[in-house]
């Protein structure tokens, strides 16, 4: 009899399948992790030896010129590489399966806001490179491309995810 | 027979209503999907348009820069390579070249250091033709003690003496060396606008050693200092940066003699700071140190 009571007392958890969350994290998490890796490398090089950055110097392509320019630090103190690292750290957390399975609509909105602000920052940095410095950094361009891809994936997910996937 | 009953009519109407509702839902779904697709495509197009506008601005801006003779531009890979890899054999053959103005000894000052290494401090300006000449020699000399890159090219003022003297620019650069720290301050741009500020300590040093501060000023760890031109900027007249750089490996040319001669003198001054390290670089220029202050 006690065994029967124990079985009866076990609560039933309703597991809702969300196939959308499954493909979303499989697409976005690798992009975010790749961005995190490149941003970490750029941050490491910024604080150690910018000249050691593996990048050709062909005039227009000149990573050193970009990463050691006065524009490489926001307000003269905060390295752009560090802001990139912080951005991808937060975005990586928001791209995990747990975050995607969350039914909290604010997580979804935060994810979209992060992606939009990332693209905004990318456009500003492209302007700085092309117009002010007249030099392109291949590693930075890699980060820009990853940020844009992440934006596209997050936007697609935001628009196509069923409304009933959210509880709030 | 042939007559529909009320019940059949009601069933037909209900079926028709269901079909219309299903069609409306399908249409609404199609419109919703179209709206989403337009949002995504619009975002992509929006970003692409901004990038294209930036590219047009960059190209237009570049064109206007090129039409103004001698403005700042990225140093080409060939210029960087030629300047930073002048063969030691060429430098040995040149010696002091035509240089007659040697660094003056500095006395009564504590050693100038930065990051635990002796510091070479350059204060110059983009408009200054003497600075324009001096930078070539500094770049050649510094490259013997470490790695110099990230610098631009520039020409001196078009309205000063020796107008449009072609040069390198140290407003942005990167230098790594285990022997010394190099600090460059480009105080004013080509049009005499403020560019980079000197610190209070640099100002005080400049005034104390130079008396009446003028460009160029090069302090070698407070052991010696250059306070005037090492060679005549007119030597570089009419040449492009690429033409100058390509001549540096030739020990007999006028340009090479002037730039490499001054580079050897600067190398000798740097060797004083580093206690003649590295020996393979300093051995050939130690005799020049005897001329300092002459």
Terminal CA distance of chain A: 42 Å
- Tell me the total number of β-strands of chain B: 11
Global structural class of chain B? alpha+beta
- Tell me the series of helices and strands of chain A, N- to C-terminal: HHHEEHHHH
Write down how many β-strands of chain A occur, each being a DSSP E stretch of 2 or more residues. 2
**Model regions low in confidence, pLDDT < 50 over at least 5 residues of chain A:** 1-15
Helix content of chain A: 55-70%
Question: Can you offer a commentary on this structure?
Answer:
- The complex is a heterodimer of chains A (168) and B (294).
- Chain A is mainly alpha-helical and 168 residues long.
- Chain A has helices spanning 2-9, 19-47, 63-67, 80-94, 97-101, 105-133, 138-160, and strands spanning 73-74, 78-79.
- In chain A, helix 2 runs antiparallel to helix 4 and helix 6 (105-133) runs antiparallel to helix 7.
- The radius of gyration of chain A is 21 Å and the shape is elongated.
- Chain B has helices spanning 6-67, 77-84, 88-94, 129-142, 200-210, 241-247, 254-273, 279-282, 286-289, and strands at 73-74, 104-105, 113-114, 117-124, 147-149, 152-155, 166-169, 174-176, 181-186, 217-220, 224-226.
- The N and C termini of chain B lie far apart (132 Å).
- In chain B, strand 3 (113-114) and strand 4 form a beta hairpin.
- Chain B is 47% helix and 14% strand.
- Chain B is of the alpha+beta class.
- Chain A binds chain B through residues 49-51, 57-60, 62, 64-65, 68-70, 119, 123, 126-127, 130-131, 134-135, 148, 151-152, 155-156, 159-160, and chain B through 36, 39-40, 43-44, 47, 50-51, 54-55, 57-58, 61-62, 73-77, 80, 147, 149-150, 172-174, 176.
